[in-house]
Amino acid sequence: MKEVDVLILGSGPAGNTAAIYCSRAGLKPVVLAGLKMPGGSLTNTTDIENFPGFPEGIDGSELIDRQQEQAKKFGAVYEFDEVESVDFSGSKKILKTQMKEEYSASAVVIATGSLYKLLGAKGETEFAGRGVSYCATCDGFFFKGREVVVVGGGDTAFEEALYLANICSSVKLVHRREEFRASKIMVERAKKHNNIEFILNTVVEEILGEDELVNRVRLLDIKTGATREMQTAAVFVAIGSLPQTGFLGTALEKDDQGYIKLNNLNSQATNIPGAFAAGDCTDPTFRQAIIAAGAGARAGIEAERYLLD
Ligand SMILES: Cc1cc2nc3c(=O)[nH]c(=O)nc-3n(C[C@H](O)[C@H](O)[C@H](O)COP(=O)(O)OP(=O)(O)OC[C@H]3O[C@@H](n4cnc5c(N)ncnc54)[C@H](O)[C@@H]3O)c2cc1C
Predict the structure, then answer these.
(1) What domain count does the chain have?
(2) Could you tell me if 30 and 5 are in contact, meaning their C-beta atoms sit under 8 angstroms apart?
(3) What is the pTM of this model?
(4) 139: annotated active-site residue
(5) Over 90: is that where the pLDDT of 46 sits?
(6) Final residue before a domain boundary, out of 177, 204, 237
(7) In the annotation, is 135 catalytic?
């Protein structure tokens, strides 16, 4: 059993920032970086243009490397490992990992992120980052003045479509059903934009392109069975995301989608004393690096204060 003051789960912006704050407070945090995607979601992207301090933009992996270097400089220790199960019933938190280690921690910061749901269309993974995106706030600007497609029928898809309608020349919202899951107010708002068009009862069968960039999609009308190709510069997939919180079981409170519930808006504390959570695993709404980093800072400060008490 390894005894630590603070164990941080995740090495994305939330975990790294919590590690910077905890290590500068003299706590020697151990960060479990994760095994499937050490460094988190940003390691999948090259151009980060909205993280403050980098006017020329920065590569996602480089931003993560710099954050980790900063945390290590102050004493944080990174391990390539991933938590499999937890026991939060005692005053010490017990966590078992895939590498068969067992940790006993006085405080934990859970920053395990979330994964975007994939569409499953042909060409989706091939063109990821080359016209296929899961985040309009992140990538919309790259398609300024162009025609784009959004896939989905919930509030997220409408938020993406409304955001893109202000940047792109046209937005085609492709939805597999006749009715939307999105709230009425979002649908009404979208209808007021004359550059948003709804394509209903339709799925994206294939994403196609040339020179490694998306330039069209093949659509299937599921009522008639007819297929057609449509020009587009990008496909924004907005069908939801999956918080990486399954390993927690019922050890702390989550919402019905699996996002970790926080006690209140001014805190990263969960319903378990000494267990804090930050970043995309708590946040179905914003899912941005700077917001995850801010939440990681708060979680780090709160963990340090908890240990002082
Ligand atoms: C393709 C792409 C492009 C993006 N572009 C931008 C952008 O331009 N600007 C922007 O602000 N945001 C962007 N985002 C969103 C941004 O990446 C996320 O909002 C941010 O990374 C969330 O940070 P996080 O620390 O909460 O989670 P993540 O960065 O996802 O990190 C999660 C960490 O938890 C680890 N982990 C998972 N399970 C376990 C476990 N059981 N035990 C231990 N560790 C575990 C993972 O290995 C990982 O290290 C983009 C996302 C994607 C996918």
Answers:
(1) 2
(2) no
(3) 0.91
(4) yes
(5) no
(6) 237
(7) yes
3-class DSSP assignment, residue 223: coil
- Among the candidates 219, 237, 255, a domain finishes at 237
CB atoms within 10 A of CB 55: 7
Boundaries of domain holding 223: 132-237
Q: Cβ(149)–Cβ(230) under 8 Å? A: yes
- Atom number, ligand 1, closest to the C-alpha of residue 295: 26
For residue 78, give the CATH number of its domain. 3.50.50.60
Residues 137 and 99 in one domain: no
User: How far, in Å, from the CA of 37 to the mean position of ligand 1?
Assistant: 9
Q: How sure is the predictor about 47, in pLDDT bands with cuts at 50, 70 and 90?
A: confident
The verdict on residue 125 lying in a domain is no
Closest CA to 34 of 99, 108, 103: 99
Is 280 touching ligand 1 by the criterion CB < 6 Å?
Answer: yes
Return left, alpha or beta for 35; rule: phi > 0 is left, psi -120 to 50 is alpha, else beta. alpha
Q: Is 32 in the pocket of ligand 1 (CB under 6 A)?
A: yes
CA dist., res. 196 & res. 198, Å (int): 7
How far CA 281 is from CA of 20, 115, 155, 201, 257, in Å, comes to: 19, 9, 19, 32, 10
Q: Would you call 168 a catalytic residue per the annotation?
A: no
Please choose from 4, 41, 163, 286 the residue to mutate so as to test ligand 1's pocket, defined by most ligand atoms within 8 A of CB: 41
For residues 233 and 257, state if they share a domain: no
Based on the fold, state whether residues 213 and 263 are members of the same structural domain.
Answer: no
Q: What is the pLDDT of residue 45?
A: 82
118-135, pLDDT tens digit by residue? 999 999 999 999 999 999
Q: Is the CB of residue 10 below 6 angstroms from any atom belonging to ligand 1? A: yes
On whether residue 208 sits in a domain, the answer given is yes
